[in-house]
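Repro case for the chain-ordering regression, as requested:
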Amino acid sequence: MFLVFTFVTALAVGPLLSLHAQQFPTRRLAPDVFAVMGDTGRGSEGRPNAGFIVTDSGVVVIDALASPAQGERLVQTIRSATRQPIRWLVLTHHHPDHHFGAIALRRAGARVIAHPDVSTGVDEQSREAAESVWTQVVGKAEMRGFAYADVPDVPVTSADTLRLGGKIIVIAHPWRGPAHTAGDLIVWLPDERVLFAGDLLIEDGVTMVVDGSSRGLLAALDTLAGLDARIVVPGHGAVPAEPRALIARTREYITGLRAAMRTAVEGHRSLNRALDSLPPADEGRPVSLHSRERRNANRVYLEVEKEFMGLDGGP
Ligand SMILES: [Zn+2]
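-- result from build under test --
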């Protein structure tokens, strides 16, 4: 049931995308490195960001968006920029809005690099059920031709370097455990100092830890900060002017939430009372900002309670 709760209205609140193969807006981050911009300003309710890197030996794509139709539009967007063949698709994690378009990239010739842990939550429903729920979110037309395509041809569980056409592309699991999800990967271009962070960073909302771990997220943020990126592409929202500021803001949010929940646990305040200080969740909008803040708080309370009772060694 988890995905129902997370995503059922994630995209339904916005206008349905046109099915015509329009291109998505792109932003050039460095020579031959592009961000494909999502619905900036709508947080996790909007279409996420993606990206692509053009080399003399083919194209590497980062994330596949939320449906085969969106994946096809992504292919069109890439084809409008280069005639190079699409060689690789790297998935930053296995949430549907980032990979349900993967089949379109595969059909265009891409092989998939991803973390092999495709689970997205402890109480995750089956892959079949997730597909049918997601079809309700984006509509049947958007999902035409869908098949799962996120199981990696090349699994990455720590760090690997892809060298293609003179470009160095580092693909890494940012931390040895779950952070945003169990299957997070980041894409780092050391020469250009460009980082694709997936949903570890959300510019127009807050990063979710419901399928991951708040302590893990803090550890992952250390990894991101250590790279000292010139440009960072978050999973959702604008490319921030100051990568460090977005990392710091994310850290402050998680640290503050952990401290508040720790105080509640130590003061023997119930989960419900601990959540009282937060704005109410938005009815029918499980990934709206207020709903996410509340769900994160709920999750962090349980995490901190476990730590407090010494049941979780953690990082
Ligand atoms: Zn996500």
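Ordering looks correct now. The radius of gyration is 19 Å.
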